[in-house]
Amino acid sequence: MTDTLVNLSNPEKLFIGGDWAASSDGGGIEIVSPSTEEVVGRVGKATKADMDRVVAIARQAFDHGPWPRTTGSERAKVLRRIAEEMTKRADDFARAWSLQVGMPYAQSSMTAPYMAAYFTYFADLAEQGFEEVRKPMLGGHCIVVREPAGVVVAVVPWNAPLATLLLKVAPALAAGCVVIAKPSPETPLEALILAECIAAAGVPEGVFSVVTADREVSDHLIRNADVDKVSFTGSTAAGLHIASVCGGRMARVTTELGGKSAAIILDDADIGAVVAGIMPNLVGLCGQQCAAFSRILVSAARKAEVTEAVAAAMRAVTVGDPFDQATQMGPLVTRSQHGRVFGYIEKGKAEGARLVTGGGRPTHLARGWFVEPTLFADASNDMVIAREEIFGPVGTVIAYDSEEQAVAIANDSNYGLSGGVFTQDPDRAYAMARRIRTGNFGHNGRVIDFTMPYGGFKQSGIGREGGVEGLHAFTEVKAVFMPELPSHLRS
């Protein structure tokens, strides 16, 4: 059972402002294993009344509680205690990811111990303070202050439930905000484990809540007028909806959305570097990554070589039970996602792209939402498989005639989240990076680092997460003009 696997003390309750409480109607959400298709646990299911209650508690905590009025250094001490508690629960976090999403445990168990570093990093930033003294044109002093944005709702997806949540919770708490976490109904466990860590760390009452709910009730949450900011990671369609809701009352919003990123292979690229840089993007998390290199752009001269090298690497991937140490790629997360990915594979065939490898269910896996790593070639950028985010282990090889055309193809997308170039020349790599309209770009691979800004151009989102920019996203800027500085700022 779920509570045994991840040691949750209150798996079927909501965490409201520091207290565990049953949902108002006693409802629940079943957790289904994507590798066995069996129900493995159950969590609480918040109602609209529960959402109204949690916002009221958060509003009280922000307007009248101590947390927003503490110093950055005081908050940093608490964040470090949260990190200590998270370190104790690293294996629970790892097992939750593998159980709900199908991430191979061999990988999740290596990643989970590093998750606590999100809190220590933002604790370090909080200690630097939120005041900057500047000299106005007309004399005197101006203190530029960053104050907490207020009541924050953090809505996260199912593919990387903990990492996406920490990119919101850690900087928001560091900034002095109060946070309501709304995990995906498919993957609620990490947020509940985090709630236990935050409670053990002594975060004040009302400052952090977790409400597990379906999407209709979640929509009620983001519409609440007492919510000051929504930070959302997920699909572009959902992000557009959330941005429009927030815009209607001028609430702050950050969105990290979909992608259709291009890997541009230049003629001097090392084929080993190409395979090593592309494969983790295509099969990691079973391809359920918004920053995946799903379009592989290569010159006609090297198209056959690159296509066969990537296809051979895909054929060598071990697909199977996420708790088997030999497994390199697990299943897709839900039955509907499984059907969606196979629908795109059929569209690729119908549009005339050549199926090089994969395209079906692994023959040795009769149960579970598994799919073979899949590669198409001889595709054009106007095909559906090159335009829309598939969110599965499906890559598409597209040929180009010149670097100018490669740039044009890469930029010919509604998205602009990530991308990369493969070349042995760093000058060519940087020149290419500056021409591609994406928020992130890599040389001979992809790097996502929570200490650096992450986000997208165009329909890939608004704002940035991670780094100093990620902390500032949870603040409001105030300019205070004074003839004489207050005592604590006098040098």
From TrEMBL:
Gene3D superfamilies: Aldehyde Dehydrogenase, Chain A, domain 1 (3.40.605.10), Aldehyde Dehydrogenase, Chain A, domain 2 (3.40.309.10). Coiled coil: none annotated. This is aldehyde dehydrogenase (NAD(+)). It is an enzyme of class 1 (oxidoreductase). It comes from the Bacteria. Residues 20-480 form the Aldehyde dehydrogenase domain. Belongs to the aldehyde dehydrogenase family. Keywords: Oxidoreductase. It holds the Pfam family Aldedh. It catalyses: an aldehyde + NAD(+) + H2O = a carboxylate + NADH + 2 H(+). Its EC number is 1.2.1.3. CDD domains: ALDH_AldA-Rv0768 (cd07139). SUPFAM superfamilies: ALDH-like. It comes from Rhizorhabdus dicambivorans. The lineage of its organism: Bacteria, Pseudomonadati, Pseudomonadota, Alphaproteobacteria, Sphingomonadales. GO terms for molecular function: aldehyde dehydrogenase (NAD+) activity.
